[in-house]
Automatic annotation (TrEMBL):
Domain of life: Archaea
PROSITE patterns in the cross-refs: FAD_FR
Domain FAD-binding FR-type: 7-104
Organism placement in taxonomy: Archaea, Methanobacteriati, Methanobacteriota, candidate division MSBL1
Species whose genome carries this gene: candidate division MSBL1 archaeon SCGC-AAA382M17
Protein known as: Oxidoreductase
Alphabetized InterPro entries for the sequence: Cbr1-like_FAD-bd_dom, Cyt_c3_hydrogenase_gsu, Dihydroorotate_DH_Fe-S-bd, FAD-bd_FR_type, Flavoprot_Pyr_Nucl_cyt_Rdtase, FNR_nucleotide-bd, OxRdtase_FAD/NAD-bd, PyrK_electron_transfer
Amino acid sequence: MSEKPLLEPGKATIVSVRRLTEGERVFEIELDSGESLGHEPGQFVQVYVPGFGEAPISITSSPTKEGPFELCVRAVGNVTNALHSLEVGDNIGIRGPYGNGFDVGFFEGKDMLFVAGGLGLAPLRSLINYVVDNREDYGKVTTLYGCKTPLDLLFEGELKRWEESDVMDFSVTVDKCPVNVTWNDNVGVITELIPGIDVDPEGTYSAVCGPPVMYKFVIQELKEKEIPDNHIFLSLERRMRCGVGECGHCQIGEFYACIDGPVFNYSDIKGVEEAL
Ligand SMILES: Cc1cc2nc3c(=O)[nH]c(=O)nc-3n(C[C@H](O)[C@H](O)[C@H](O)COP(=O)(O)OP(=O)(O)OC[C@H]3O[C@@H](n4cnc5c(N)ncnc54)[C@H](O)[C@@H]3O)c2cc1C
Ligand code: FES
C-alpha cells in the first residue's frame, strides 16, 4: 500500500473504539462533512491512516443504523495496525463507499441463508442487520457462523441476541476449543452445519463471506442442498489500490473486484480460474 492516497479522501473522525477480540476492533466513524455515508450492505471504504496509507475495509454497520458508521478491523499489517493504535477523536481519511454491495431489493420476499466464516462476518453483518431491521420484507432467515475458537467470536452480544430471538435460525461453530475455555455449542468447521439446516432450495438465496479456503467447501454443501448456482452470492477480497476500477490491482479474470464486486453471483464467476 502506498503512503499517499491515490485519490483525495474525505476527512473523518473516530468517535468510538471497541475491542472485540485480541486482534479485532470496531471503530465508529463520523464524516467531518456531517453527511451520512449512504452505503449499501456489502460495500467497502478505503480507509487512510495519515503517514501509513490506505486499506479497503467493509462497512460492518447496516445502513439502517443511525449516526456513525462502523468498521470491524483485524490488525494484520501496516495500515490496520496503525488504525488500532488510534483513539477516539483521532482523524482518518475515508473514500467511498465503493463496490456493488448486496442487492437488498432483489432479495426481498426470498428466504436468506447467510454463511459467515471468521472476519467474513464483518461485511455480512451489515446485510444481516439490514434484513433484521426490515424483517417483514424477507422470508425465512438462517445464519451460520464459524470461527477458530470461542475466543475469536466477533460481536458476541449480537450473536446471542440473534440466537435467542425468533427473527432467524442461528447456528455457530468453532474449529476447536482450548481446554481452559468453556464452550457448549458446536465444534467443527462451518460446512458441517449446512447438512442440518432446513431450506427450500428454489426459494433460498445465500450470501457467503469468509476466508478463501472456505468458499469451495461451502459451495459443495449448498449444491448438496440443491440451491441453484445463481442463488449463491459471494463476497470476495482482493488486494486493492485505487478502489475505483483504475489501477487493475484487484483483477479477477475479466472482472475488477472493486467495481464489479466485491459481491459476485457464483454463476458469473464459477468458470473464472483465479476467482475461488
Ligand atoms: C473489499 C474488501 C473488504 C475488506 N474488509 C475488511 C474488513 O472489514 N476488515 C478487515 O480487517 N480487513 C478487511 N479487508 C482486508 C484488508 O483490506 C487487508 O487485510 C489489508 O491488506 C490490510 O492492510 P494493511 O496495510 O494493514 O496490511 P498489509 O500491510 O497490506 O498486509 C496484510 C497482509 O497481507 C500480506 N501482504 C502484503 N503485501 C502483499 C502482497 N503484495 N501480496 C500478498 N500478500 C501481501 C502481509 O504479509 C499481511 O499478512 C478487506 C479487503 C477487501 C478487498
Ligand atoms: S483496486 Fe484499482 S482497479 Fe480495483
